[in-house]
Amino acid sequence: MSRADAPGALLEPGTGYGDLPPAPALRGSLARLLVAELRLVLGRRRNQALLGGLALVPLVLGLVVRLTQDSALRDQGPGFIGEVTGNGLFLVVASVFVCLPFLLPLCIGIASGDAIAGEAATGTLRYLLVVPVGRSRLLLVKAVGALVFAATAVAGIAAVALVTGAAFFGVAPLTLLSGDVVPVGDGLLRVLGVVLYVGLSFIGLVAVGLFFSTLTEVPVGAMAATVVVPVVSTVLDSLPQLSAIHPVLLTHHWFDFAEFLRIEIGWDVLASGLGLQAAWALVFGALAWSRFTTADVTS
Amino acid sequence: MPSTVLPPLSPRARWAVPVVAAVVVAGAVAAPRLAAADSSELPGLTAQELVAAVAEAERTPVSGTVVYTARLGLPSLPIAEVSGADPTALLGGSSTMRVWSDGAERSRVALLGTVSEYSVVHDGPEAWTFSSTSGTATHYVLDAEGQARYEAMAADLADGTLDAPLPAGAPTALPEDLAAQLPDEVLAELAPSVDGSLPTPAAAARAALAAAELSATVEVTGQSTVADRAAYEVVVTPTSDGTLVDRVVLDVDGSTFVPLRVQVWSTQDEAAPALELTFTDVSFAAPSDAVLGFTPPADTQVEEVVVPSSMDRPATAGAPTPGVDVSGTGWDAVATISGVDVPGLLAADPAALVEQVSPLTIGSERAQDLVEQFRPTDEQGRTAVDLDAATLYETLTTEVEGGRLLTSTLLSVLVTDDGRVLVGAVPPQTLLDLA
Amino acid sequence: MTDLRTAARDDPRERVAGSSPAARSATTTEAPPGAFAVATDGLTKRFRSGQVAVDHVDLAVPRGAVYGFLGPNGSGKTTTIRMLLGLVRPTSGQAWVLGHPVPQAAGRVLPHVGALVEGPGFQPYLSGRANLARVDAADATTDPRTLARRTDEALERVGLAAAADKRFRQYSLGMKQRLGLAAALLRPRALLVLDEPTNGLDPQGTREVRHLVRELAADGTTVLVSSHLLTEIEQVCSHIGIMSGGRLVRQGRRTDIADPAQARVEVDTVPAHVVRAAEVLAALGLPEVRVAGDRVGAALGATDPARVTAALVGAGVDVAALAVRRPTLEQVFVELTGEGFDVAR
């Protein structure tokens, strides 16, 4: 150990610690923490299994549609699943449609509910905080980690679906829900819009998961609570007696990705969907922040 | 670390942050509504002036979103939950539609479902319907005679020798004896009749206004705000006491005079309208050409339907339908269909019943077409509503002396044991008395 | 005193330095001016359940000291340590670490503090080395370019170099504890806070930890080390603080910690002088004079043993031997806490 490294060198004898040399935060330190977090989130086997499982959905769906396209089973299910046989682009939409109600919220709920509670359960939270990492900074990094996981999940499904669909059924001009047909390039853009919108639709859920994650040291509890939220929201959304609260429900605008498949895209509908997500993210992000920056860490 | 430079917030101050966030969100939601509430004053108009203005406004292109809500007081049907965008959804609950019209003979109405759509496109002398759920299209064309007449009319129109026509597909929401009194329905009558046409506020309002003068009082009661636009509010009150219709409220845009909202209030429910059709957002810019036309996808199954020219159509020609007897006039008319084998129909096909009843429904010929969508149109049964007919019948009707009764807030149907079906926008007692 | 005044500048309340007897004894006998690595004033933590885990604790850890923080399980040691590290917010009172108030200035102070809190906590599916890299990535003030060297040094120092690339999950309890120490040593520290560092270690590992603590102290690092097992750390401590029931019941130099009032003087004499010797001791005002064979004993209290010798000699007593006996640390502890060292509540 060199003289300069010796801890004693930090201190001028006799002057106490009042002049403790400030340790300046190095440039890029946030990026460094972010990279470490992403490596942790995406490198974790459980998360890889979740992502892999989701990516299997379009593969299985494509395979099933291909195997049954000449049988009596064809055209069962939502109308556009039948369209898959004629156009691989539709496999992207069909896969997102299949995963959106439950599988995606489940996986994203697990990742975001685990964010803080998981660290608390393994005891790593206290060590990160005494490093020290500012609690706001850690929460931000955790939020980004969960959002990247959500984005990866949606993008993974889309990418596998696009490749599978193109390989099995080819790519053709896209038939919209209105029956009008748009060229391949336009169709690709619209499908990309679907994927983007679906990805952004999970911002609110991630914020809810983060908040629950700050409430407990039991990650399974936070995950379960997070997964329950979209399920309850969907149930409430289906009760006409509650139509007054429908516009503020987390899942109310999830299926509005269909706007990209209508003849004139209802941008105002999409904007209200994203605005709703922003509102949920704002409220639950603020709740998570308040809770996390004031809580005693006793795990 | 910046947090050490700034004095840290106390825990209490930190918990104020989500409260502030919630207030900001609530404010962002409420602000547009408050802003919309202060609408500018419109100049006063009498009902007569308003109707005239509406008539002149026919060429205004319209596009926007329309929400249709039915509170008919029927037992809830498990239909909307299981099917995609389908006109049967209009029977109950709330539906959203997108509407585009060039103000003349081209229009498109799309009924929106969750990742599904049912489209009706009127393009001059032809019309299309397309259901994304079944992936099938139906093409309606005029027969040769009708086509020739249409072209002649269109030429006249271009020359300016004909008054501006109603938009194609305007529902003839009128008793048949009134239809002849309407001068402007020429092209509309020539346009193909489409199964499952979707109602628009403009068309429904015009029909209501035209019908109103014969058996109701019409007055402009004030101003309202619909789809963020200042509108005149017109109330049509039937003069008769014998009908379930309490009043029809119509909101007409203050500057373009395009009808923006129609509400039908029942005498049975003072809290909310039994039927409501309203724009939630509206624009008066001309829709793009792509929206107003339709070409079916290459591999789609297309059903071709030739619509006989209007002169031969019994429903609009005013000829009495065999087996149907109408008593009463105007709002409290009751139709009696005799010789209906109800048990036989139920055993066979629920659609058959609907088909029998359909000429006499809610008041709009096109709306009754909606009811016909009960009929499974597809051999593979894709769009068929898989409900057990007898169960549905049991659910909707109640046992009365001498038959079974269906009551809703706007319509009553009595099926007698001797095979007659009585239908009218009247209280059930009226039907029982007639039977 | 200087240091406490320095610290008091951060505290709006006029703090009376060293108001508790324990703190006063530490400051007056011990501390060079301005040299407390850790100081607390009335530090109290009441949990929401109503349980008072820490009750008006006034810690004073002099700079350069190896401070043994002792107490039975559940006596409030860990909660106190958590408050020093900014993990738990005190209900009342104030703590200063390295001269700065915490948790207010935790971001400034903690880079200079290495900590092992209530057992090691690492991601089970990462290797020891990867875990250290992750902890270091969280540190905004360390240079990633020196990470490999610092990691190797830290692992070497705790004797974990050979197992660095095994998954944490596969580590034994002792290896996990060592990795926790390695994380605390990833960079030079002015203060090390080690909560039960010998937990789970075998006697050999315990000796190594003691050796490590000694080595670090020799480098000038202040070490605050807690344990419920006195014998494991007693030998390396320069100072001792004893917690019981959330209170700091005794604090000071290890050599002074046994209460001087508890010391006894014992005089061996010839049988003929036993009675006279007892009279002399009683005349000096010493209580509890007892005779056992040729030996006369009494509680010494604050009396100077030299005075006792002089008085005995002056009275003509033949003194064969004179001894001052102080109670052991363990006896003090048992007396203060009412229980043994390793009794868990």
Describe this structure in words.
The complex is a heterotrimer of chains A (299), B (435) and C (345). Chain A has one domain (29-293). Helix content of chain A is 65%, strand content 1%. Chain A has 11 helices and 2 strands, in the order H-H-H-H-H-H-H-E-E-H-H-H-H. In chain A, helix 7 (135-169) runs antiparallel to helix 8 (184-200). Chain A starts with 28 loop residues before the first helix and ends in a 5-residue tail after the last helix. The relative contact order of chain A is 0.13. With 435 residues, chain B is of the alpha+beta class. Chain B has a domain at 316-434. Chain B has 14 helices and 18 strands. Chain B has helices at residues 2-5, 11-37, 47-56, 144-159, 176-179, 186-190, 201-215, 289-292, 314-317, 342-348, 350-357, 365-372, 389-396, 428-434, and strands at 62-70, 93-101, 106-113, 116-123, 126-131, 136-142, 216-226, 229-238, 245-253, 259-266, 275-283, 301-307, 324-327, 334-337, 398-400, 403-407, 412-416, 421-424. In chain B, strand 2 (93-101) and strand 3 (106-113) form a beta hairpin. Chain B is globular and about 85 Å long. Chain B starts with a helix and ends with a helix. Chain C has 345 residues and is of the alpha/beta class. Chain C folds into 2 domains: 2-256, Rossmann fold (3-Layer(aba) Sandwich); 260-326, 2-Layer Sandwich (Alpha-Beta Plaits), CATH 3.30.70.100. Chain C has 12 helices and 15 strands. Chain C has helices spanning 2-9, 21-29, 77-84, 106-109, 128-138, 147-157, 173-184, 203-218, 230-233, 274-283, 305-314, 329-337, and strands spanning 36-46, 52-57, 60-62, 66-70, 92-97, 100-102, 113-116, 191-195, 222-227, 239-244, 247-253, 264-269, 290-292, 295-299, 319-325. Chain C has a 6-stranded mixed beta sheet, sandwiched between helices. In chain C, strands 1, 2, 3, 5 and 6 form a 5-stranded antiparallel beta sheet that branches. The longest helix of chain C is centred in the middle third of the chain and has 16 residues, at 203-218. Chain C is elongated and about 80 Å long. The relative contact order of chain C is 0.13. The model of chain C is unreliable at 1-33 and 340-345 (pLDDT under 50). Classes of the chains: A mainly alpha (299), B alpha+beta (435), C alpha/beta (345). The interface between A and B is large, with 43 and 52 residues.
